[in-house]
Amino acid sequence: MYDSLTMVWAGIIAFAIAMYVVMDGFDLGIAILFTRFKVGTERDMAMNAIAPVWDGNETWLVLGGGGLMAAFPLAYAIIMPALYAPIIAMLLGLVFRGVAFEFRWRDPGHRARWDAGFCIGSIVATFAQGVTLGALLQGIQISGRAYAGGYWDWITPFSVLTGLCLVVGYALLGACWLIWKTSGAVHDDARRLAKPLTLGLLAAIAAVSIYTPFLSDKYYETWFTWPGILALAVMPVVVAAIGFLLYRSIGKGRDFLPFILTLSLFGLSMLGLAISLWPDVIPGRLSIWQAAAPRSSQVFMLVGVCVLMPLILGYTAWAYWVFRGKVGQGRYH
Questions:
Q1: Beta carbons of 130 and 164 less than 8 angstroms apart
Q2: CB neighbours (10 Å) of residue 150?
Q3: ∠ at Cα 194 (189, 200), nearest 5°?
Q4: Beta-bridge partner residues of 143
Q5: Three-state DSSP class for 319?
Q6: Residue 174 has what pLDDT?
Q7: Which of 79, 114, 166, 280 falls 20 to 30 Å from 71 in CA-CA distance?
Q8: What distance in Å separates the CA atoms of residue 6 and residue 9, rounded to the nearest whole number?
Q9: CA 333 – CA 330 distance, rounded (Å)
């Protein structure tokens, strides 16, 4: 029962992280592309496409981080010292992005600076998230029950690669969201930007997929022995097929389709990461069962999650339903 409960908590945290990537990914992506739109109506419309939902999207980041601390405290105690720098950079980027979002409306005299801050803060936050992922994948040194590495161990060629790849991926999510939610010049600009970003994301997925199995023997064995080799044979074909459909859908067809196909690419990427990591929370060092909190703590927290999770899903779904359809040029706040 304890083992099953630990797996449930691993699933909850994975779900929260996936929801954050999906929901905050597209509004970070719009911010990454923000300075590519013309000053005035175009930027205002791009902002309106995320204004009703952007702050609520970050709820999932809080749930994922808080859930890790509560359900897997040993992993949290090791990961945080190892990755303080990129995590703090991410949080500062998100704060700066939020401040710039609000003040660009309230301080029109300095709107150009706030627009630049909105873009830069989002790039920093996204790059830091990618670096954090890459640093975790490449492994963390542990001695006993504590972090044993240096302050700069998190920055490597692989972590920089994952940081850049996530910037490209979020930018594509943002472009596809604008294709779905806007019309006119912003819509046309988003279609124009999405095509090269699609090729960039496919190249990024390929680069990370080729690099990852050679980071450790565990990854290599996972992907090049049965049954992992079956996924290795199938997933590149599926990714290529979805990428082809995505590229074609950008130029024509239903406006929601590029966003759905981009989410499919993200979903396959996260599935690949889950296959690589399972059952470890710190690759090659600490499994989810070794890092788990006592059973009584997990049960207590699960009761709270069973109450809060439906509420979060409910108000999120309601917000997206209320603001469905194409956005206009007016302000939402």
A1: yes
A2: 9
A3: 140
A4: 146
A5: helix
A6: 92
A7: 166
A8: 5
A9: 9
Mean of pLDDT over the chain: 85
Q: CA 165 from chain center: how many Å?
A: 11
Alpha helices in the chain (DSSP H): 2-32, 41-48, 54-57, 59-71, 73-82, 84-106, 111-138, 157-181, 184-211, 217-224, 228-251, 257-277, 288-291, 295-322
Give the three-state DSSP class for 16.
helix
User: Is the distance from CB of 173 to CB of 129 less than 8 angstroms?
Assistant: no
Are the C-beta atoms of residues 332 and 112 closer than 8 Å to each other? no
Which residue has tokens 């199938």?
234
Judged against a pLDDT cut of 50, whether residue 332 lies above it is answered with: no
Question: What was the pLDDT predicted at 329?
Answer: 53
Three-class DSSP category at 146: strand
Those residues whose C-beta lies under 8 Å from the C-beta of residue 81, and which sit 6 or more positions away, are 146, 147
pLDDT in tens, 159-175: 999 999 999 999 999 99
Beta bridge partners of 142: 147
Q: How far apart are CA 316 and CA 56, in angstroms?
A: 7
Give the burial string for 180-208 (b: 16+ CB within 10 Å, else e).
bbbeeebbebbbebbbebbebbbebbeeb
SS3 226: coil
Rounded distance, CA 237 to CA 65, Å? 34
Task: Pull the structure tokens for residue 116.
Answer: 């630049």
Of residues 16, 29, 18, the one with CA closest to residue 197: 29
Amino acid identity at 188 = D
